[in-house]
Write a structure and sequence with these properties.
It contains 6 helices and 7 strands; from the N terminus they run H-H-E-E-E-E-H-E-H-E-H-E-H. The chain has helices spanning 3-16, 29-40, 101-112, 118-133, 147-150, 173-184, and strands at 55-57, 65-76, 82-92, 97-99, 115-116, 137-146, 161-168. A hairpin with a 5-residue loop joins strand 2 and strand 3. The protein is elongated. The termini are far apart.
């Protein structure tokens, strides 16, 4: 990332909105924003292929595994405003092989830390898990509030967007119904 360009760009934004980037409260704001952008967009530099993706043997387990309510943050590519919420992962391992649950959060965080749209993010996670785990079934569900709907435009705070990506055996009605029941908390 080009830190100097980011800092200069935010100075120009502050001037463009009619404020003085030299006033006391704003003097270091461009630098703080450059630090934030380096973190928020680290997924443009880091890749999911760099994640230590270890597979583990789960003895006698080719049953459904659900990891839910994983908090995530991203920035929409249309307005560069945050969207944030919860992600839920559901899979049925093939040949008793799965990965550590913290690995799933690293995949989520890496893919979310780039200019994104929720629909693509959901699909990218599912596709990556399919590629790495080769499970019998995969489901990724994401629920998020988008500040572009909360702070501007229609101004509807609290509204949520829900997206899902379904792969493999999760397309079967009964399997999908069980997964959604577990995510909702009613087995």
């Amino acid at each position: 990332m080009d830190r100097k360009k980011i800092i200069e760009g935010f100075r120009q934004v502050l001037e463009g909105i009619g404020d003085d980037p030299g006033r006391e409260g704003l003097v270091r704001t461009p630098e703080r924003l450059a630090d934030f952008y380096a973190e928020a967009f680290s997924g443009l530099v880091d890749t999911v292929d760099e994640i230590d993706f270890r597979l583990y043997n789960v003895v006698n387990h080719e049953e459904m595994i659900v990891v839910k309510d994983i908090t995530f943050f991203s920035l929409c590519e249309h307005h560069l405003l945050p969207f944030f919420g919860k992600a839920h992962f559901c899979s049925i391992p093939r040949n008793h092989r799965t990965t550590g649950f913290s690995t799933l959060t690293r995949v989520l965080d890496t893919l979310a830390r780039r200019p994104q749209i929720q629909e693509r993010l959901t699909g990218e996670i599912a596709d990556f898990l399919e590629k790495k785990l080769k499970p019998i079934a995969t489901l990724v569900v994401m629920e998020a509030e988008h500040l572009c709907m909360t702070m501007r435009g229609v101004k509807k705070p609290g509204s949520r967007t829900i997206t899902s990506a379904i792969r493999g055996g999760m397309r079967r009605d009964a399997t999908r119904a069980e997964a959604f029941a577990l995510i909702k908390g009613s087995p």
